[in-house]
Amino acid sequence: MDALAAKRKNVIASDQMIEGEYPIFVDRTSGAYFWDVDGNRYLDFFLSYGTVVLGHADRDVDDQVIAEIRKGFATGLSKPVQTELVSELLEVIPGAEMAMLMKTGSDATGAAVRLSRSFTGRDRVARFGYNGWHDWCAQWDHGIPRATRDLVHTFAYNDLDSLRALFERHPGEIACVVMMPFEVEPPAPGFLEGVRELTRAHGALLVLDEMRSGFRMALGGAQEYFGVTADLATFSKAFANGYAISALTGRAEVLRRLDRVHISSTFYANSDAMAAALATLRKLRSGPHLERIHTLGSRLQDGLRELTDKYAAPVEVVGHPPMPFLDFRLGSEEENQAAKRSFYTETIRAGVFFHPNHHWFVCAATTEEDIDTAIEAARGGFEALVRDGYTGAVRSGEAAR
Fold this sequence. Notes:
Layout: H1 2-11, E1 26-30, E2 33-36, E3 41-44, H2 47-50, H3 59-71, H4 80-92, E4 98-102, H5 105-120, E5 124-128, H6 146-149, E6 152-154, H7 160-169, E7 174-179, H8 191-201, E8 205-209, H9 221-226, E9 232-235, E10 246-250, H10 252-255, H11 272-286, H12 289-310, E11 315-320, E12 323-328, H13 333-349, E13 352-353, H14 368-387
Parallel strand pairs: 3-13, 5-6, 5-7, 7-8, 8-9
Antiparallel strand pairs: 1-2, 2-3, 4-10, 9-10, 11-12
Cofactor: pyridoxal 5'-phosphate
Protein name: Aminotransferase class III-fold pyridoxal phosphate-dependent enzyme
Pfam families: Aminotran_3
């Protein structure tokens, strides 16, 4: 395996492996766990960037996928599962009158922007958060024409004045506001409602990027959870418990513009992932899976807050219960990264996979005992911060267990 790992660096472009003592190759998965090729088991709070909501290798989902594969899933033509899935999707997503199924989150959000520009006859876009890798929203400028970058403007979260200023600076030019409902900071009272009002007042569409929030915050995503309905909303990640599919949903009059806007892919009609999404959606609707995820996530956050207080750690527990995270606040980015290495080296040695640079996630297969295990692993991480001088002593002279 060492030779294969060395070869990987020379043959795979943009290798996204995390630095540190992390598994080089994953062998198999089940429930809330994965095993590396050396047989080590890890409790997984990364869950494939949050795509796994029910648990790895969920039998109910995989059985439907296998059945669809055996019938033939790559026809390039419509199959019944497509209409079944979209019909069920429209039942749970607020404001969804029509939908288009695609493959990735970037596909869906990019399509939403193109449709918004066609529908409004405008070119500019206001955005917040991570919205994918396409030219209009890529995090890095390299390879992106300036003419493209100049049409996209960012605004600050929980700051209506920053968005209002964009509308005032570019009157009648902004086609849509594309935004994640939140990243780690919750919306201030009235913020999302204020964004909704501003878009209506200025004739722009509101597009909610629900990649992380969809089918996690609530069955109907952040729109259901926060009570704000967008013109268009995009989904992927937890939609199919790990299988590659996304959806663009929203107002029919906007989506009907697809008859004059070119959005296409060879693989959009593949029905294997549609079967996975339908099975996932039906299972989520069948029981209190999301409520349980919220409960377990809250327990994890509460346990982490107790530890940050006990160890006087310059770390804040952030995010919503289904997707918690630790924000290291030591000052410089160099100090933060060094402290993260100390913390996450201990947690991965304890067999718990917390991603150091991405939201964590809880799935329906996670148990109360798993949360206890995770909190104990985090305790070791905080003790490492004390040991390595990134925080003071344990408060009240309490000895670490």
